Structure formats: structure tokens, C-alpha cells
Amino acid sequence: MKKNNNLLEVPNINSSDAHVKNLIYKIDDLFNSHYKSSQKSEYLCVCSGGTTSSCARNGLITLDLRKEYNQIHLEKEKNLIKIGGGVIMKDLMNYLEKHNKTFPTGLSKLPGAGYILTGGISPMSRRYGLAIDNIESIKGYLGNGNFISLEQNSLDSSQKLLWEGLKGAAPFLAIITEIGLKTFQSHPIQIIEGFVDDNELSKIINLAEGFPENLSLQWIYAEDIYIYIFAEIKNDSDNKITKNYLKKLEKFNSLKIKSYENYNQVNFFPKELDLFELNKNNHSEVISLLGGDLKDNVQIFVKCMNEIIRDKPNKSCYVASQQLGGKTKELNHKSSFFIHRASTWKPWIYAAWKKGDPKEKEIVLKWMNESWKKLKIFFPNIHLAQIHNHLNSHEEEVYLSFGERLSELKTLKNICDPESILPPL
What we know:
Elements: E1 2-3, H1 13-16, E2 19-20, E3 22-24, H2 27-31, H3 33-39, E4 44-47, E5 61-64, E6 72-75, E7 80-84, H4 89-98, E8 101-102, H5 113-117, H6 125-128, E9 135-142, E10 147-151, H7 160-173, E11 174-182, E12 184-185, E13 189-196, H8 198-208, E14 215-221, E15 225-232, H9 236-249, E16 256-260, E17 282-290, H10 298-310, E18 318-323, H11 327-330, E19 345-354, H12 358-375, E20 381-383, H13 394-402, H14 406-416
Parallel strand pairs: 3-5, 4-5
Antiparallel strand pairs: 1-2, 6-7, 7-11, 8-12, 9-10, 9-11, 13-15, 13-16, 14-15, 14-18, 17-19, 17-20, 18-19
Helix pairs in contact: 7-14, 8-10, 10-12
């Protein structure tokens, strides 16, 4: 085995440190007869952006899509952009910005197409839906090697279930080489941000649960609490609504208003804020939860959060959250394999430890799992943005992600990936 020196830069330190068995850039190399006979259908890691702990692993094969599948093509008259499976969100947004267009990407610009295919929750999702709600076409290869080319407007009855499965559960079924996405006209953005205390967080969460679709709340609780209220100003109505909410927020003295020409210019949770300890010698795991409105339980929730943060094992660990709702609740839960359409909040637990320190790793993962257990009462479901088939929680996470559609997913898995070269369920 060798360290993955030929991988492009990998943001996730776990994957960056992996000693991979083999590195592949082209799908043709994966499915040719020599490879298939020599590798005996071993489990494959797929890297589209490099932000997860599962894109490279010790002793396993990695397919890095970023080198050969990084094409971007805008069909401006159709408001459609086609991107390769190895395009990272930063490159997508920079390209769209040149054409005064935008797309609902997440808080970080580092992820690749996996962000889109596993759901894609954005500060803009309340108005424009999840990333998967804006997929128009998909090309790629099933785990069995068969090429697929699907377009939403020309699906036949035999393709419908696969189309739905690829929107939310693609990593289990296929390697995606091209995605066609709707794009949207870019508009000015206002951000209301600052440090708040736990009592203020409770009040702001209650306020946010009544937000119109052009507003959303994001927060992080590490050593202190920092919030972002995102507002898109598309027209006079947006401007008026946002001003009304700004008046309600005036009592929170620490909050400041910043204006941006477009969404791509916003940089969430920059390292300059020193919100948590960034350490390049850390390994980490992330688990993402989903749940509905907190309503009258918000103070109990914040008290629970205080306990979780009090008990965190080091300064690198934190809990953060994004807000859903609006458009994300309108679509039928059977339109994709992101089934938890009633969700309002997506909190995630970030757990980090010094690499090479198994004792600290054990302590940190115990904290992550205990924190998850405490938060389940508020957020009972999972958003499977990162696949943890190397952790004991994997099967429970899969069940809490796909619920009533898990049996359909297992059927698709047996058809599309019978030798299980892609992550197992």
C-alpha cells in the first residue's frame, strides 16, 4: 500500500492520510476486464470533492473523479448547467457568477457533486428547494458497469424508481459523471450575523420558525454561539419583508448587517472568527440530523445544547445547524429518496481528534454518539451527507435516512450494484 500521493488535494484529513491500494481516474479503467478480474469486486471509494472521510481508505481503491470529470457547460437560454461528477461547488459558483446566475450550494464551497446527490441543503433551499430538487439530468455508470443517461422530462416507467433513488442515495447505486442542473438569476444578499448568548439563540430560533422563504437561519455552537440570518433580496416585496425582520432583530445588539452583490460572495464561518480550533493534525467525523419545528421546546433544546458543549472533549468539536422549510416542504416525499420533507432543521455534530491517538478517538466518538442520542428527541432522523459504513452506527443511520423507502433502495441496490463495489447498506 502507498499513501495517496497522486490524489489531488483532499480537504478531509482522514482521506488525505489514507494509504490506498490503487488510484483510478477514469471509469473505463474501473470496468475493463483486466481490472475486474484482478480486483475481484472489492469495495470502491469514490472521490468527487474530497470532503468526506469515505473518499479514500487504507487498503481500498479510490476513483478520483476530479481529474477527468470536471467539465462545466452552461446552456444559458435554458437556465441549465451541466457539470461533471468531479466539479467542486466553488468552481460551479465561480462559473455561474460570471453569468449572473446562482445555485443553492451549501455553507462550504469545498464539497463536490456528492453534496448535490445526497440532498444538498443550502441557505437558499427555503426558496429554491434542495439541490436534488433542481436536477434535470443524470449520466453515469451503475455499480454493475451499465451506462445510464436519464432526463427528468423523458423518463419511462421503468426508470422512475432509479431516478428517485439517484436523488438522495446515488452513492450506493452509481458513479455519476454528469449532472444537469437548473440555475437561477443572481440577486443581492443581506447577512445578519454575530455572536449571541443561549437565551438570544432561543428567541432567534423561535423567530426563524416563522420566516418567509427568502430568509433562513444558520448557527454554530462551539466555544460560543455565532449565527447567520441569510436574506435574498429578489424584489421590493423581499426588501420590505426583510426590513420588517431587521426591526425585530434590533434588540440583539451584537448582530451586524452585511450586504453582498450575490450569494457566491458570502463566506460562512470564516477561520478569522476563530469559532473553533482548526487543526490539520486532526481526524474527524460528522453526523447530520433532521427534525421539525422546535416551537415550545426551544428552551429545552438550548439547555440540552449547553450540556453537549460543556461535555465536548476538545476545542475542535462543535454542533451547528441549517434551516429548511418553505420549498423543501412542498415537494412530495416520494419525489426523491430524501424522504424527510417535514424537516425544519438540519443540525450536525462535528467530532475531531488528534490523528494517531486511538484513546482520544474513542472518547470523541463516544461524545458524538451520546450527543446524537440526546438530540434524537428533537431531531429523530438522519441526513446521510456522509457515509459511515466504517462506524458501528452505519445501519441505524441508513434506516433513519431512508425509512419507509429502504426496502425499495435495497431492491435497487441488488439490481444496480449486485457485487457491492459501492458502499453497502
